[in-house]
Specification:
This protein is of the alpha+beta class. Helix content is 38%, strand content 16%.
Length: 149
């Protein structure tokens, strides 16, 4: 009898244990809004499952699942441009952090760090960097692109 791969955990017990230690540093609750469309994009289902597994590790993490096509109001209010997407938000504040695609490899670490930063309510930038950013004449939309290697 073939094993149902869709029911197997995406994270190993070792990874979940390491994340439990990392998430012990959470200060405030974090909301993870997942935008997907499972029928049109198979990767969407993996992203949703991964985020649900993360939230199962610590009760301060909550998951909100949205359908990219049906939940247009939420898609627009959070500025979601494509799927699969994860919006990493504080309890009452949206810092504008969006991750697109399946966060695997180094991108997974980026997701974990984003969760920790949002929980602290602080980016970790130095005072000097913050002062330099305040001097910018207009808002900047920063996007970082990476590819799995």
């Amino acid at each position: 009898m073939a094993e149902d791969v869709s029911r197997m955990p995406l994270m190993t017990d070792d990874v979940a244990s390491q994340l439990k230690e990392e998430f012990a540093r959470l200060v405030e609750p974090v909301r993870l809004a997942v935008f997907s469309q499972a029928l049109a994009d198979p990767e969407s289902e993996q992203v949703r499952r991964l985020v649900e597994e993360l939230a199962a590790i610590d009760p301060r993490l909550t998951v909100e699942s949205y359908n990219f096509v049906l939940d247009k109001e939420k898609v627009e209010s959070l500025g979601i441009a494509r799927i699969p997407a994860i919006a990493v938000m504080g309890k009452d504040k949206d810092y504008g952090i969006r991750l697109y695609g399946l966060p695997s490899g180094y991108e997974f670490g980026t997701l974990v760090e984003a969760i920790l930063d949002v929980s602290r309510g602080d980016s970790g930038l130095s005072d000097e960097t913050r002062a330099a950013l305040m001097e910018l004449p207009r808002p900047v939309h920063l996007q970082v692109f990476s590819t799995p290697t």
